[in-house]
Write a structure and sequence with these properties.
Layout lengths: L1 H17 L9 H20 L1 H10 L5 H48 L1 H7 L4
Helix pairs in contact: 1-2, 2-3, 3-4, 4-5
């Protein structure tokens, strides 16, 4: 019983932390809804593990723990994919900003050659 309470508390705390607004969340409502479904599902599977086994048998998986493992593997790959896409977008943005900065510094150097010599020590 104690482990169930600790697991439920952990799921709720992590769920609340993940549902916090982080600034530029364009899909915050969808993320909160899915996280809420996950938290409820996790709490129910902790309180009633036989339900998870029943559902696993219903869809053709032998045990509830196997179903949970498969779901976690899929969630892990989805996380990796979203992080990869985020990293690619961030790298593109950094590249565009670096190019823009280089062009601005080149234009500045063309107008005032003395300021270009001062900027060489910045970096």
């Amino acid at each position: 019983m104690l482990i169930q309470l600790l697991l439920i508390a952990g799921v709720v705390v992590i769920g609340l932390l993940l549902m916090r607004r982080t600034g530029a969340d364009s899909h915050l409502a969808i993320r909160r809804l899915l996280m809420g479904v996950f938290v409820v599902g996790a709490i129910l599977s902790i309180l009633f593990p036989q339900w998870l086994t029943w559902f696993a048998n219903l869809i053709g998986v032998g045990r509830g723990t196997d179903l949970l493992l498969y779901a976690l593997v899929i969630a892990f790959f989805a996380f990796i994919y979203t992080q990869y896409r985020h990293n690619v977008a961030t790298q593109r943005q950094i590249t565009r900003l670096a190019r823009r900065l280089a062009l601005l510094e080149a234009e500045s150097a063309d107008r005032d050659p003395s300021s270009a010599a001062e900027g060489l020590g910045d970096g």
